[in-house]
Amino acid sequence: xxxxxxxxxxxxxxxxxxxxxxxxxxxxxxxxxxxxxxxxxxxxxxxxxxxxxxxxxxxxxxxxxxxxxxxxxxxxxxxxxxxxxxxxxxxxxxxxxxxxxxxxxxxxxxxxxxxxxxxxxxxxxxxxxxxxxxxxxxxx
Length: 140
Description:
Blueprint: H1 3-16, H2 22-42, H3 48-55, H4 58-67, H5 72-113, H6 130-139
Helix pairs in contact: 1-4
């Protein structure tokens, strides 16, 4: 992986651990990018591991940023919202799986219950004199 790809993953990790408003997240991410840029400016040959060691792991950096927020209840509120969203996603996924299994069971049951048979029916008609008798009666 290139340093650029590693940094994208690093920034995603930071954002994932930021339980705050979108504006605060944007501000914190800008600060994280500045910290990394400053480090790389002073250490141009640094590796990604050097960045993590000196700037911090994503979850540690996010926690440090969250500790600077004046309103600590905002962090808890956003954690609860994210937890609720995760639970809702799991519940919806579980429901979708249950419905899918139900449809598969129903289709297999209907297939087993359906009987297709093939047969030949022969109809034999006896010729009658009805057309000639009708012609005779119409002449009268």
